[in-house]
Amino acid sequence: MESAYRILDIEFNAAVAHLADKTARGVRIADIAPQTYEEVIYQIETHGVIVVWSGASQHTIFGDPETNYAFRAWHDWCHWCGKSDFSPSGETAAAYMQREQLIALYGDTPRTRRWCKIIEAEIIGQIRYREQHGEFPIDQYAFVVDYLKASHAKNGALAHGLTDCGELCSHVKI
């Protein structure tokens, strides 16, 4: 039987852990976590903590729940920092902030552009999937792999397709 824990990119995992540590301090993992933008903002601004949902962490790209939680915390911190709600455009803005931070910290390289495509798949791709199917993909690992393959076929290389998030990310300090 295949293990549910598969790692897509161990270096990306390390970058996620590093950026979560630099940005999203005060993280608590819980069975019940904020479900709205307003609830996330309230937790951060009132209690100084980002509460991350503990569920749906077996079939992610990270290979272990802890890195998935770190990614969620970093992503929610970007929602807070960028004042980006949970609408599709707000999710996109938070994902762009994450991508911009990767480039700022690790440079604009083929590796970081691949990581940016992974974030695109993980956030924007899954939002689009949910809009079309009414739920998030159950096997997020397989979804991201398929997304990256389709992106590669469409663009000719994973290094293509990075969209600059412009002014939203220009103020971000990591």
Keywords:
single chain; 174 residues
Explain what you see.
- The chain has 174 residues and is mainly α.
- The protein has seven helices and two strands, in the order αβαβααααα.
- The N and C termini lie far apart (41 Å).
Please give the structural blueprint.
Elements lengths: L9 H14 L3 E4 L6 H11 L2 E4 L11 H18 L5 H19 L3 H24 L6 H16 L11 H4 L4
Parallel strand pairs: 1-2
Helix pairs in contact: 1-3, 3-4, 4-5, 5-6
Helix and strand element order:
HEHEHHHHH
Q: Give the end-to-end Cα distance, rounded to a whole number of Å.
A: 41 Å
Uncertain runs are: 157-174
Q: Tell the overall outline.
A: globular
- Strand runs, count: 2
Question: Percentage of helical residues?
Answer: 55-70%
What is the percentage of strand-forming residues? under 5%
Summed up, the domain count is 1
Structural class label: mainly alpha
Largest sheet strand order: 1-2
Main beta-sheet strand count, sense and barrel state: 2 strands, parallel
Please state the CA-atom Rg, rounded to the nearest Å: 15 Å
* Averaged pLDDT: 87
Q: Given the structure, what is the number of helices? A: 7
